[in-house]
Amino acid sequence: GFLWRAALPAAAPARAFTRAETLAILREDLVERQYYVTGRLTRDVYAPDCVFDSPDPDMPVRSPDIFSTAVRGLFDRRLSKLELLGEPALRGDAVV
Questions:
Q1: How far is CA 34 from CA 18, 25, 87, 93, in A?
Q2: How are strands ordered across the β-sheet holding 90-91?
Q3: What is the pLDDT of residue 14?
Q4: CB 88 within 8 Å of CB 95
Q5: How far is CA 15 from CA 12, 18, 24, 50, 63, in A?
């Protein structure tokens, strides 16, 4: 699975988002922007030094910019599509 958590100490995102706004933006990034295939994600919702983590051996990656650049090369955007099997949820400071 995919996990986002704030690094300590974390710089603040551009503005404060409610939990509901955060989940809506993350869902939109996943479903509409297909960020895991395209690398297009809403950077404003992430702290500049946040950590993206998963079971992938190349993880964790620090910063939305580095993560976005890295995932752009993983899939052929014309042939690939991300299908969301479960809704993103917030557990503490982590999105799972």
A1: 22, 12, 14, 23
A2: 61-62, 51-53, 3-5, 94-95, 90-91
A3: 63
A4: yes
A5: 7, 10, 15, 15, 16
Closest by Cα among 82, 84, 78, 4 to 47: 4
Please give the chain's pLDDT, 96 residues, in tens: 444 444 444 556 667 888 889 889 989 998 999 998 999 999 888 888 888 887 677 778 888 898 888 888 888 988 999 888 888 888 887 777
Residue at 90: amino acid letter: L
d(CA 66, CA 79): 23
Task: Give the rounded distance of the alpha carbon of 36 from its chain centre.
Answer: 8
Separation of alpha carbons 48 and 75, rounded Å:
25
Q: Kindly state the DSSP code that residue 94 receives in the 8-state scheme.
A: E
Residue 90 and residue 39: Cα distance in Å, rounded? Answer: 22
The model carries a pTM of 0.69
